[in-house]
Amino acid sequence: MKPVPFVYHAPRSLDQAVSLLDELEGDVRVTAGGQSLIPMMNLRVVRPDHLVDLRYLDALSGIELTDTHLVVGATTTHRTIEKSPLVRRVAPLLREMASNIAHIPIRERGTIGGSVALADPTAEFPLAALMLDAEMTLSSVRGTRTVKADEFFHSALETELAEDEILTSLAFPLEANRGGSAFTEFSRRKGDFCVAGVAVVVRLRDGRYEAARIGLCGVSDRPVLSTIAGQLAGERADDATTNRIADAIADEIEPMIDGRATVADRRDIARTLVRRTLPVACERAAAIAQ
Ligand code: FAD
């Protein structure tokens, strides 16, 4: 199928882009990589009157390190993040999660801003944003504001973004990346959106957890952080603790129901993924500590 007719706009500055969102009438959408929006338009699930393409806004693309944050422009592609030595060094979880998204051709075009703005509950980057305490910068003709990841995701495909706002960057505090991290997911076919995924960041001292954060995608209408992970502080980082926490998280989550997995399946998948991911993060944390 082909999309319904629409008017294409290619602004050359952020000011132009936000003005278009303010002035144009009808269903106005921005597009970045087009890897989700264009298929949705082709299927006529969405029928925009106007498409505002962000691809020529160079200021929205790129990765920078400040004293406190890794700042990633919204139109930076999944593949750029995956291949960046800087991201590998200061935010290895973000790199690992990027490498799990779809296939290389999609990662070459899809953008972190598009993924986070879309807010698919099984997507990797919304969970990365939550896990790593990202601060999202949103711009419109009304000004600029910053929203933390834990306030950004409202429900499936619903976010804090207003219709006239553009997500311009994500800032990841370096502190949130401290420790060993790991991500694993379960997909029916390699490259598909996953059924569920688990991300972990841990810090260890003398074989015990000092701090632990565990997040999941695909088990709710938005990415979630486990509250039980907080109980790990002071516990031994061994198999018994891993199994206990995996069982507790499988009980804690309230899985969504869709055509891809039952509630019981999602609990089993989450349990298995925690059992696989937590020891890897611990190994990496131990290696850093040496
Ligand atoms: P677009 O498709 O251009 O836009 C998506 C939405 O975000 C639109 O509503 C658009 O208006 C809005 N938007 C885009 N940028 C901004 C912005 N800066 N500010 C405000 N709103 C914005 N994704 C995964 O996470 N995991 C997967 O495993 C996965 N598998 C895929 C498999 C296939 C076959 C395909 C086609 C896609 C898959 N995707 C997957 C989606 C892919 O990652 C997309 O690239 C991503 O979800 C959207 O990014 P985009 O830049 O292409 O956004």
UniProtKB/TrEMBL annotation:
Coiled coil stretches, renumbered: none
PANTHER family in the record: XANTHINE DEHYDROGENASE SUBUNIT C-RELATED (PTHR42659)
Domain of life of the source: Bacteria
InterPro entries: CO_DH_flav_C, CO_DH_flav_C_dom_sf, Diverse_Substr_Oxidored, FAD-bd_PCMH, FAD-bd_PCMH-like_sf, FAD-bd_PCMH_sub1, FAD-bd_PCMH_sub2, Mopterin_DH_FAD-bd
Presence of the UniProt keyword Oxidoreductase in the record: yes
Pfam entry (one): FAD_binding_5
This protein's UniProt keywords: FAD, Flavoprotein, Oxidoreductase
Residue span, FAD-binding PCMH-type domain: 1-177
Lineage: Bacteria, Pseudomonadati, Pseudomonadota, Alphaproteobacteria, Hyphomicrobiales
Protein source organism: Aquamicrobium soli
Name of this chain's protein: FAD binding domain-containing protein
